[in-house]
Amino acid sequence: MTDSSVRFPAEWEPQAAILIAWPHAGTDWAERLADVETTYVALVQAIARFQRVVICVADAGLQAHADALLQANRVDMARVRFAVVAYDDTWLRDSGPISLRDGDGFRLLDFRFTAWGGKFEAGRDDLLVETLAAQGVFGDAARQRIDFALEGGGIETDGAGTLLTTWHCLHERHPDASREELTAKLSDWLCQDRVLWLDHGALEGDDTDAHIDTLARFAPDDAIVFQACDDEADSHHADLKAMADEIAALRTRDGKPYRLFPLPWAQPIVDEGRRLAASYANFLIVNGAVLMPAYGDAADDAAAAVLAQAFPDREIVQVPCRPLIWQNGSLHCITMQLPRGLV
């Protein structure tokens, strides 16, 4: 039984800010730092048109550098706040807080971050929420530490008690737990009363073990936006077709099919022989807009058109994300929304 006074809000609900971390030479971006900073500048430009941005920086020097870049690109700095904190990398969707509304306040769930099952160093990232909370970034919100590996990119909620996730990811993190056990834990911690599992769907070049936010996302009014693949010659076709069939079989709380919005498929992007995961499902919702990853592909505009149908009351803003997928993630992966009132 879930606590009805505590709720996990949908991403399209009113927000206070977006939390990001600026890349620097001590992160995995070092080799292509200037390249990826163009994406971060464009992202902050886009967010600041609609709401505030909280930017984690490793030290005062990085803050001065980021500040100068943003000012040079005419970002509204009145909407930018910096927080000095140590971090291993910049994937704040997975190391940042999962915010629940708790009565008139907030509860920040601080799950254990293992860098997707111990693939990378994550000691500083795992302390990120605790450190930011101690600095007062989240006001007087209560922080709840949970000794369980879970990343924000691995879960998706409709804000009304239904969670969407993938079995592959959660099973990789917790191989000894049954689906029933994981359903019970997720329902309890995240205050959900339904957990929908997908058994298919994965992208080459994705080291998250099939995070849901690269595959399928809720949209308002019982809709699901998902990454499709219409190229039968592509290695992803069979699995994404199986995922599309699974999604079509899902039912709303009222027993009806979801309204479905399949996203187009970008042409393969290969970097030094490695296929990169260019998913349009990795979009970010902000107040009044949807920021979508653009890859310099002919399908970019078609993806924007689909998102405009799924989010008819929001502006669709394309953010160049080709530099991001070199490190196996995209727009949603580097951001975490903070609900209105939290900061």
From TrEMBL:
- Entry protein name: Agmatine deiminase family protein
An MF annotation (GO) of this entry: protein-arginine deiminase activity
* InterPro entries per record: Peptidyl-Arg-deiminase_porph (IPR007466)
Entry's Pfam families? PAD_porph
Keywords from the named record: Hydrolase
Segments passing through the bilayer: none
For this entry, list what GO says about its biological process: putrescine biosynthetic process
Q: Which domain of life is it from?
A: Bacteria
| Presence of the UniProt keyword Hydrolase in the record | yes
